[in-house]
Design a protein that fits this description.
Protein name: Pentacotripeptide-repeat region of PRORP domain-containing protein
Structural class: mainly alpha
Family: Belongs to the PPR family. P subfamily.
Radius of gyration: 30 Å
InterPro entries: PPR-containing_protein, PPR_rpt, TPR-like_helical_dom_sf
Keywords: Repeat
Strand content: under 5%
Number of helices: 18
Distance between the termini: 94 Å
Oligomer: single chain
């Protein structure tokens, strides 16, 4: 022990040790540049556009390892051009070779979403078949872009066939899937079909969510039934569900469209003071619609309220307020 202690004592006092410490490079090694999500998207775009799909595969793998997950721009190189078919076939070839699990599953889901954006739902369903045969983790989320696209295009029968396809793969139909149908029917004001969707949801023991109620409010407004829309809003509040800004916008738009100007102001003021962003959206939207209808008296009252509450106004509303309220009151 004495020998060991003497060794450390001598080493501590050693000029050599002091010189060694003084010559250590105190500059840390520069960290390697970590690519961002946008950089990965750009690299995949370049590789896909040039036909280098092995590079696409490698990039899909490495981006997930680096926590740079796929985005709507990941497969942006895939467009409705002459090279579409060959590019899609190349992707179908390399995607099964990506890392199993989340990497592969998310790559498929991102590509399906891209195909739906291009209006290629038939090809999206082919990829569904690829995932099913390869057992690559199909889920209800995989089908959402397809159902959403078809219902938006009012291809309701085709969308229901997709639902049956989900069931054939033993994938449960979730609330979001039903909401796509409900929103489509409610947008068209088709209360009967909307009621049928709600009935199916209830039969399967599903509880409506915020989007469900938003669609129902939209349907009531499209049918000119403001009272029903208000009743649905009250039920949301009773059940403690958050109300979307868009849900309020449906009601405001219908009230102004129906000429219920005073009621529109009363409705917006009833919710004022709880959420500043909601106040800005509601009061600003109401003021804009009143001005468009040349209901300047009501519009001035709304803009005064926004000013008192310190709410942000758009440029057009600010100009109207300063010209028609501030100047005239001076």
């Amino acid at each position: 022990m004495s020998l060991l202690r003497r060794y450390f004592k001598e080493a501590t006092n050693s000029r050599f040790l002091l010189r060694s410490i003084s010559t250590i490079n105190t500059n840390p090694i520069a960290p390697r540049h970590r690519r961002t999500t946008t950089e990965f998207d750009n690299l995949i775009y370049e590789a896909g556009s040039s036909g280098d799909f092995e590079a696409v595969r490698r990039l899909l793998n490495s981006r997930v390892v680096n926590a740079c997950f796929n985005t709507t721009a990941t497969f942006k190189f895939l467009t409705n051009t002459a090279s579409y078919s060959s590019s899609l076939e190349d992707l179908r070839r390399v995607l099964p070779q990506t890392d199993p699990g989340y990497t592969r599953n998310h790559a498929y889901e991102t590509l399906i979403a891209r195909l739906c954006k291009l209006g290629r739902t038939d090809d999206a369903l082919i990829l569904i078949g690829d995932m099913a045969s390869g057992r690559f983790g199909l889920s209800f989320r995989t089908f959402h872009p397809i159902i959403n696209t078809l219902t938006k295009k009012n291809k309701i029968e085709e969308a229901w066939r997709v639902v049956e396809l989900m069931r054939s793969h033993e994938i449960p139909v979730d609330v979001t899937s039903y909401n796509y149908f409900l929103t489509s029917h409610c947008y068209d004001g088709d209360v009967a079909e909307a009621s049928e969707v709600v009935r199916k949801m209830e039969e399967e023991g599903m509880s409506p969510d915020t989007r469900t109620f938003d669609a129902l409010v939209l349907g009531a407004c499209k049918s000119g039934k403001v009272e029903a829309a208000m009743a649905i809003l009250r039920r949301m509040e009773e059940e403690g569900l958050p109300v979307l800004y868009a849900t309020h916008a449906h009601v405001i738009a219908e009230m102004i469209e129906s000429g219920y100007y005073a009621l529109g102001v009363e409705f917006v003021m009833a919710y004022a003071g709880k959420d500043k962003r909601l106040d800005e959206e509601n009061l600003g939207s109401l003021a804009s619609k009143l001005i468009k209808r040349k209901r300047f008296k009501e519009a001035k009252l709304v803009l005064k309220e926004m000013c008192v509450r310190g709410l942000r106004m758009g440029i057009a509303l600010r100009d109207f307020y300063e010209t028609n309220v501030v100047v005239k009151e001076q």
